Amino acid sequence: MKKYNVAVIGVGVVGIEMLRVLKQRNFPIGELRVFARSSRDIDVDGQKYSVKPISPEGFEGIDIALFAGTEGEKGAAVTYANEAVKRGAVVIDNGADFRMDPDVPLVVPEVNAADVKKHKGIIANPNCSTIQMVVALNPIYKKVGIKRIIVTTLQASSGAGKAAVEQLWQETEEVILRSQKSENRSQKVLSSVFCSPSSEKPMPQQLAFNVFPHIGSFVEGDYTNEEWKLVKETHKIMHAPKIKISATTVRVPVRTGHSESVYIETVRPIAVDKVKAILSKAPGVILMDEPKNNLYPMPKDVEGRDETFVGRIRKDAFVKNGLWLWVVADNLRKGAATNAVQIAECVISSSK
Ligand SMILES: NC(=O)c1ccc[n+]([C@@H]2O[C@H](COP(=O)([O-])OP(=O)(O)OC[C@H]3O[C@@H](n4cnc5c(N)ncnc54)[C@H](OP(=O)(O)O)[C@@H]3O)[C@@H](O)[C@H]2O)c1
Questions:
Q1: pTM of the entire structure?
Q2: Which of 101, 154, 218, 226 is deepest in the core (most CB within 10 A)?
């Protein structure tokens, strides 16, 4: 079997998960190089990796470069992707910088694997919240069309990186410690034990014991750029630019696992049982929908899983062809690392 030299860039929450996924999926690796800003040795599930400082020359001889490095608002791929491509590598980038470039395919293998073949050196991995939504909706779209999507996301702290997970832990400890000192916890006015927002922190508000509708930065029409990603990326991946999409993205105090409350209006009518039948056979989807047994997907149960879980499927009570779904996936696995490695697998099989 042919082997491929692979580089992983970044050893934050996504980079570490990439190392795990490459190993778990037995990716045919010749040489593996791991880059970050500085060198160190790391241990992932008992396996040691030597991390080297990134440099253009480091990409010499690399076949596939999996980017999961952040540089402030931008990804490390802005500086290094073309250096890797110049040296013969195919770049798969987790950052947002190339996703809407018309020369860069944006791929979720369950939906548009064939787009991989159009690449000119760089392939983009979509935003975590987009990936799980299109995996769940594309099978319905293919069957009966979709004309409208209204989605509210409930996104975990790890979606904002390693430092955001740390912020959630620290704030949680801080609030618990402070409230333990008060005489009656349930009566306590919580604002007096809350942490103040700080521009130094990765998240703009306190997340412990709180939720806030603010992911990314506020841009056009007072939506956030995270909300526009769900709109534009869905259009591009599903090749369906006419679907009317509105999103509200919310950060919730969950470590890992994004949830989405999704409303759709289909073009043609479809019964709930039929939707369930389609999704139970759809690639990468697990139907978990037994409300009478309290069975529906939750982030705590999907952590570490590669599939997208769907439940709470029901008809809208007032709108013809209106349907509601609850969609949950691990943002670090299917939302990032697993999808990127699946794209790499598509690159290999399309080059055979
Ligand atoms: N978290 C998610 O759920 C998710 C989902 C989809 C996409 N993404 C995207 O995936 C990327 C990584 O996110 P993350 O959540 O893993 O971030 P993270 O936990 O903050 O980790 C960032 C990593 O990037 C490295 N890095 C920063 N600048 C670099 C540079 N110039 N060259 C090489 N490495 C550099 C850092 O190196 P040091 O360790 O040396 O500081 C660190 O290891 C981002 O582009 C993000 O938007 C994240």
A1: 0.96
A2: 226
Burial 188-206, CB ≥16 within 10 A → b, else e: eeeeebbbeeeeebebbbb
Cα–Cα distance for residue pair 68/336, rounded to 1 Å: 9
User: Domains in the chain and their CATH numbers?
Assistant: 4-126+336-351 (3.40.50.720), 130-159+212-330 (3.30.360.10)
For ligand 1, the distance from its centroid to the CA atom of residue 13, given in whole angstroms, is 7
CA–CA gap between residue 333 and residue 195 (Å, rounded): 31
Q: Whose CA is nearest to atom 35 of ligand 1?
A: 69
Whether residue 195 lies in the annotated active site:
no
For ligand 1, atom 24, the nearest C-alpha belongs to 69
User: Please, are residues 319 and 265 in contact by the beta-carbon 8 Å criterion?
Assistant: yes
Per-residue pLDDT of the chain (352 residues; tens, 9 = 90+): 899 999 999 999 999 999 999 999 999 999 999 999 999 999 999 999 999 999 999 999 999 999 999 866 777 999 999 999 999 999 999 999 999 999 999 999 999 999 999 999 999 999 999 999 999 999 999 999 999 999 999 999 999 999 999 999 999 998 888 877 766 666 555 555 566 666 677 888 999 999 999 999 999 999 999 999 999 999 999 999 999 999 999 999 999 999 999 999 999 999 999 999 999 999 999 999 999 999 999 999 999 999 999 999 999 999 999 999 999 999 999 999 999 999 999 999 988 7
Nearest CA to ligand 1 atom 41: 37
